[in-house]
Predict the structure of G2/mitotic-specific cyclin-B1.
Amino acid sequence: MPLTRLEALSSAISVHDDGENAATLRGKSSLSTSGKFSGAVTKQRSVLGDICSNKSTLTNVASETDFKKPQLLPSKIFKKQAQDSENTPQPLPSDKDDVQPTVDTERRQSFSSQNLEIENIDKESNPQLVAVYVKDIYKYLHELEEKAVIRPNYMEGYKIRPTMRTILIDWMVEVHGRFKLLQETLYLTVATMDRFLQVEPTIVRHDLQLVGLTCMFIASKFEEMYTPEIHDFVFMSDKAYTKKEILRMELRILRALDFSLGRPLPLHFLRRYTKAATHVYDWVDVLHHTLSKYLMELSLPEYEFCHFLPSQLAAASLCLSLKILDESETPIDVLWNDTLVFYSGYTYGALEPIVGRFCSLIIKSETSKYQAIRKKYLVSKFYQISALPNFKSPVTHAFMAKMALKNSNFTHVSYTNDGC
């Protein structure tokens, strides 16, 4: 082809092509034979910026005159549509424009929350608190805890005894402190052990410590960011068990539980209930939360507490904490007011048996042989809550003695100030 025709063709393309072909030709012309850019680099289009603003970059866009106007419909069609609209029932106007939050009907009927004075505790704008989903989350947790129930007195007919379980958990609390694990890990360890033991009645005394260590190993994997190595658990057992035995027991436990480890913990519910209490009472602070945690941990080694739901333990511990730290001597059923009933789902009448068990547990903790939890809460990190002066006040003594006597498992209580 002659040179004149090539020059004419290139000039025609550069004149008539303002779209992608022009950009392609300019890009190719800026490349040298070595593959590097030698000419000026064109400015890149900002993301979605020039699509609507720069009209020159839009190709094949029809103008306003290209659009056809809609055809007029006959008058008969309009009359038919008007008759149909008159026959269809229209929704009645609502008096309330605001959308009300949904409440679980079953839980509402259980304690007649329609007549309660409820304070909204989910007004925060912090997105980390997920106030939009928090009610659905805790509704799901309540459903989930009922699917992983531990039977009362599940050790009947076993070769192991509840006292062995108490000794094991008291020792595991010390191991938990040596490893500096999270609080959730300890609760999940005990819950996993109880759930496994109730479906495995063949566990003997020699394997009970192996079950406890393995459950803590599993719970560490589930909760911790940095899990202790398996050699650490072998060392904690004084080399009574090998690495293979722990791994074999781990597989046995996970198969027995069908790999279901998502049972809710009392701490999950306690944080919600404490938040509700802080909105109700100005004097509720971290001391109430710490005392509630102390009571819940005291119940871990006790065999008679293992069948209670986590939400029940959290509600009962907070209810007793409000009474112990209350300086106005308000009745406990008044302290557990409508807002706390609504957000916990339990009235004081439903929590009273558990509160009585907690009272007897506090009384027995001072003379018990198993002092791991009590020593744990003697440090300043936990505000020395186990040596709280309120435990020795005459009013608290009289209240706990009265509540403990209501407990069927409590035999005898003697105080010098019982008449107070």
